[in-house]
């Protein structure tokens, strides 16, 4: 028995043998393509967003004060190393303030934001406790790195952490738990 293969008549046995390498080559190409696609997908993880509550890492203090006009001077202090200036902003310290946020803590280095931390108020903490917040962020950024009771997502430029913060109760006799989220420029990030 003979068969036509690519315009040439061959015995059927040779046609089947000739087709087998072509099938295995196409199978190899399909597997290789799938492997490259999987590697590209893994390498193409979502970058950490560098903005939080309408502030972006790299903004100047003037930009922050335009967005949240101060009603009084904001308390500041320098870190012990002297590299980062910390600013503490509460709802009563600004004319406008984000909903569901109790406190914003900022870190500035050379006049630019390198750290933004948001502490949510009690209602938002009840509505979105830490496990729920971590679950939502995991859908976007993948599995977090867990350190004690905090969860972190990292890329080459930015670190995002979610954790529960203990703050004094209004009467000062106990501590309350509030959900907190922060983004930090990798150049100043120190793991806790």
Termini distance? 76 Å
Give the tally of β-strands. 12
What kind of assembly state do the chains in view correspond to? Answer: single chain
Spans of at least 5 consecutive residues whose pLDDT stays below 50 are 14-43
What shape does the CA trace take?
A: globular
Structural class of the helices, strands and pairings?
Answer: alpha+beta
**Helix share bin:** 25-40%
Report the portion of residues in β strands.
35-45%
Radius of gyration: 28 Å
Q: What does the average pLDDT come to?
A: 82
Tally of individual helices: 4
- Read across the widest sheet, the strand sequence of neighbours is 5-6-7-8-12-11-10-9
Largest sheet: 8 strands, antiparallel
SSE string: EEHEEHEEEEHHEEEE
Describe the structure.
The chain has helices spanning 12-43, 61-67, 122-127, 130-141; strands at residues 2-5, 8-11, 51-52, 55-56, 76-78, 85-90, 101-109, 112-120, 145-147, 150-154, 158-168, 175-185. By secondary structure, the protein is α+β, with helices and mostly antiparallel strands. The strands form three sheets. The protein has an eight-stranded antiparallel beta sheet. Strands 1-2 form a two-stranded antiparallel sheet. A two-stranded antiparallel sheet has the order 3-4. A hairpin with a 2-residue loop joins strand 7 and strand 8. It is globular and about 40 Å long.
């Amino acid at each position: 028995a003979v068969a036509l293969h690519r315009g040439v008549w061959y015995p059927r046995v040779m046609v089947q043998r000739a087709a087998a390498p072509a099938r295995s080559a196409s199978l190899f190409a399909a597997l290789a393509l799938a492997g490259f696609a999987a590697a590209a997908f893994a390498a193409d993880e979502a970058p950490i967003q560098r903005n939080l509550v309408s502030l972006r890492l790299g903004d100047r203090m003037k930009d922050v004060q335009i967005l949240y006009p101060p009603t009084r001077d904001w308390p500041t202090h320098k870190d012990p190393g002297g590299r980062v200036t910390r600013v503490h902003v509460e709802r009563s310290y600004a004319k406008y303030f984000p909903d569901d946020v109790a406190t914003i803590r900022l870190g500035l280095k050379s006049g630019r934001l390198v750290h933004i931390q948001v502490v949510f108020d009690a209602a938002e903490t009840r509505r979105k406790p830490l496990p729920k917040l971590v679950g939502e962020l995991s859908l976007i950024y993948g599995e977090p790195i867990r350190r004690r009771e905090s969860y972190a997502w990292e890329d080459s430029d930015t670190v995002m952490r979610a954790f529960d913060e203990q703050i004094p109760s209004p009467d000062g006799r106990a501590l309350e738990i509030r959900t907190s989220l922060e983004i930090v420029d990798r150049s100043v990030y120190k793991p806790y």
